[in-house]
Fold Mannosyltransferase.
Amino acid sequence: MGGIDVVHPFLLIAIPALILLHVVVAPYTKVEESFHIQAIHDILSHGIPTHNVTATLKAQYDHFTFPGAVPRTFVGALILSTLSRPFIWVNENVDKQFLARMILGLSNALALLSFASGLRRAFGKSTAVWYLFFQASQFHTMYYASRTLSNMFAFGMSTLALRLILPEPLAPEVSRKRCRAALCLLTIAGIIYRSELALFLGTNTLFLLFKGRVSIIGDIIPSGIAGVLIGLGLTVSVDSFFWQRFPLWPELAAFKFNVIHGQASAWGTHPWYFYFANAIPRLLLNPLTYLVGMPLALVQPSTRPAATYLLIPSLAFVSIFSFQPHKEWRFVIYVIPVLTAVSALGASYIWSHRAKSLIYRILSLAMVASTVASFLCSTFVLLPASSANYPGAHALNTLHGHADNTKPAISVYLGNLACQTGVTRFLQLPSAVDASIGDGVSTAWSYDKTENQDLKLSPSFWDQFDYVIVEPGEGETVLSVSKAQGAHWVDMEVIEGFSGVRFLRPGDAAVGTVERRVLGNFIGPWSVQLWETSRDLVRRTFTRGWWAELRMEPKLKIMQRV
Ligand SMILES: *[C@@H]1O[C@H](CO)[C@@H](O)[C@H](O)[C@H]1NC(C)=O
């Protein structure tokens, strides 16, 4: 066990450090995150209005211009912007989008570490170490921990709840108190953020009841009532205010829209087994965790009670939830800490028997090697590939850097893809009103996100813009529509985005755009040199010329009206 004591502190730092690394390398956001990130922006830059509320919110806040299909909650944005405030007081110029994401990421990291600490008390240090080892090598959890999705606001709370119901050796009164706190947390998270947690709450409650850890009258009803009062109290008061509709419970509205009216299926459907066959393996990443670790934990008599205790409520949740035809991996991310913990039970068993037989020695090696491989794959392949997925943000930053900023006003059209791949209000530059109070900012920027196709076919529409950021196809439309007006546009820059993997045969030259950009930006030019030299060496001596690299293709065009 001596080795484990040394590894432990590094693994404790690894989870928050990796989550931060993912924010640094991929600081931009996609369309799914946009509601919460725009809400954080609006609260931070406009403040919360206290008088003339409806008109002020309508004039300043993004959600009145782009309300989306269903209202979403402001609770998470309010918490993150409040926690961001002290840092902004210290340094007004801090990157606020980065700051808010970092706070969310670190709070999710703390929840994961708390879960690991519960595992150590319940099942021993070796299980906790394997858990951290597996968790740090999973791509999705590390990448999404800092992303402002409702699921990731709920994830920290559900992970804490799961920690509280771990079978730690505790006095019965303490253990019941923890179960009540867990059920209360899940209720709050379900009411405020994600309605699917009601089902997760249901399977966990029934299981705890069946195990005799809670009683209906003494625990379930009081924690349920407390959760409902806190959850509803928060969401209804906060969201009725921000949406200026009373009474508003956004998750109920979303649940009615998606589940009862079946609208969710419009986003696509998957077969029943999708979560088991596709989503969960993808989330766990390392195949040995579910092909070896989990089955072994279930088969071995010494780990079976712990494994079934962890698995039953989570697998019941996923099985029942699989009847909802619209499926996304993020709807079941809450079970990942538990499934990872079961794999860790198995891995810990293998590890502790490695001296006893050849098969366990081989399996131990395979476990270590596959985890290292997953870690390398998620940090050095999946992360750079994903970071190249935000052409909208890169296009807007490029435009801000290159535009003629001696003009008093610049008007920009942002196409659909740009808005979906990284453009947020945090990246936009101030409009005239704000510029007058800023120092030295002389250009007033304005941005337009019109989606109406008919409007976009009228020549006068494009006349109002100095620049457009559009997909190459739409660029052609802009040219042909404007021609009638006698207006001319020139290409200013082409922005590329990730488009898959390219396999190189012997003799093909490597391009290495993504690698060059990521290494050059985050480590320095010398690392690009080092990378290219070692790549060529490996190709020459080891792979006989074969290689694979990330491929980029033009995604967006910045065009300037002349
Ligand atoms: C209320 O706010 C709107 C938008 O900011 C503004 O146009 C209007 O003049 C305000 N009305 C009053 C009475 O302050």
About this structure: The radius of gyration is 26 Å. The longest helix spans residues 358-387. The beta strands are 409-414, 444-448, 467-470, 489-504, 547-561.
